[in-house]
Design brief:
13 helices; about 350 residues; Protein SERAC1; Rossmann fold; alpha/beta; single chain
Length: about 350
Amino acid sequence: MGILTFHPKNEQALTALEINLDIVAIHGLNGDREHTWTEPKSHKLWLRDFLPDDLPRARVMVFGYDATPIFANSTAGIVEHARDLLRCLVETREGRDETKRPLIFIGHSLGGLVIKQALIIAERESRYYKQIYQSTSGVIFFGTPHQGSSMADIGTTVARIASTIAHKPEPELLQSLKKGNHILETLTEKFREHHKARPYDIVSFYETRVMRGFKTLIVEIPSALLTPPGETPTYEEQIPVDATHRDMCRFSSNEDKTYKTAVRCIKNIFRGSVMMNIDVKNEFYIVPHTVNPHFTGRNDIRQQLNEGLIEDGYGIARDQQRFVLYGLGGSGKTQMCLKFVQDHRDK
């Protein structure tokens, strides 16, 4: 469980490659960090075997969680998994450059719901997850059931039988996929509000083949799209995939049509983030005085301020940090503070 990095393979390579983009993929129901993205015949895992060649300066990661609906050891819901995803990302993106790096999410099925919930939390609890909220450049969904799945009714029945045998409560995760469930309705509405406040690119891939043993698509086309039926998609690229729900995010070759489209989407999202300069200026920067244009020197004091307020766990410590600067009147205390604030206004 947690985050696994496919590329680069070690810290030395991470520094040498000058990584400029983070990509994290989240699997769906009954999946895991590797099996979900692996084509069974070729055993190729495109996030590990193909994507680093097309995007060598991207750090490619996968996030794992317990999403097994039957005989699961955990009955944690979408919110708990979303919080775990945020925690892992914050701990992975600790460096100063990492916190400002563009971030793209990729989700299959239930993984897309975890992503949506995580981004809603990141916006609401910006004190802890500001870097995730501000760095998110786009989301790519593969068969995410935004409005539920008709197959969830069958799954819920099986889960009830399993819970009777194993003496476990009915999994909340499977219930959340049931069409009309209030959790999904609320999540989708909140995500639309979140995205409206801070728009970024969204790509929705949807399946067009029925899985063997079923009479309908696992996730019907209207359910796999964020844009409400009857409305024109203004922020969402909608892409059909000639595959089943299970196979739509598995590619045997880097020549696969859907793989090429996915790479194109990732590159477009990244280019857009660079053009929009996602390193947003601090909109709450309000200082009553400006720095004297002739201010100079005091490098020793500025270094002490940096060490005490910035370098020593800035953005990690939850307690307010204090630094007392004292001296005779007219010795430059105010100008020193103004200069420090100006230098770090975007933090």
